[in-house]
Amino acid sequence: MAAVDWDSALDQFRAYLAVERAYSPRTVEVYLRDVTAFRATVAARRGGEVAPAALGTIEVRGHLATLHGGNDAATIARKLSSIRAFFRFLARRGAIDGNPARSIRAPKRKRALPRALDVDDTFRLVEAPQTTGRTAHRRLSADEEARHQQLRLRDRALLEVLYGGGLRVSEGCGLDVTDLDRGAGGLLVLVRRGKGGKSRSVPLGDKAAEAIDAWLPARRQLGDGPALFVNAAGRRLTPRSVQRLVQRWRAAGGVVPPATPHALRHSFATHLLDGGVDLRSIQELLGHASLASTQIYTKVSLDHLMAVYDAAHPRARAEAGQPPPEGATTPDRPRRRPT
After folding, report:
1. Domains along the sequence of the chain with CATH
2. Which DSSP category does 16 fall into?
3. Between 20 and 30 A from 216 (CA), which of 19, 58, 61, 336?
């Protein structure tokens, strides 16, 4: 591959990400947007377009300097990663002599712990479509009431699948009816649209299976498309619409902590770890490429354990200058349901 101009380089980089790396369209756009912003910064500083082959470390550092103040460390690290991947692509194809971004270190970033709900709050959220009443201020027609009940069945099934399988919201929205696999061991769901184009099979518990069985007859009345979860018009749900419905049921169920679709995934992993499941199994269920991504849940569980200890153990309370609760011997255990 000979030296190329910016437009040709970006077109080829896009094809590489989409075809060879099998990245999702959204991920490809993020990479291209980051590199295009770098291109614009260089052009503004140099008074005109500069070919990729003529760029060096100083231009990359100069672009990163413009990002400080308006971006956090994680965002800057991501943008640097995109630029590094672009130059690595060009270097491997002989368009440039080396990768000018290779030696540049990303800023240190504080890794936030996943926000997981406790067991009781998770149950309140997941069961809210079934246990809470309607809050509409007008009477619904028979058709409206029937549709309302259909969507409650959908929301219950969706929440059960997100929590019961630890799915990302995009994975839940991407499920088709044909991705359900019922065998002697129970219900499996095939996640075909996982991160990085990877697929995996995830088992679902009895509660999720019951919710799906209740939803499927209503689903067939909303259209004959392939999607498992659809809106009232029969079109596939979007991640944004799922975020809104989670917030609605969080409020209806009286769940105080912030809750998002991804919080259900975090709760799935944390609760499994608390229940004694090994990290490798949780990694497989979550679809993590690296065990390091899964290990962060050990920190979440340890923090929870320490909080329970400090709140309930007589010696911990005595050291803090607080008397132990009268008659208390062990902390209350959260209720659990069988899976």
Report:
1. 6-92 (1.10.150), 119-304 (1.10.443.10)
2. I
3. 336
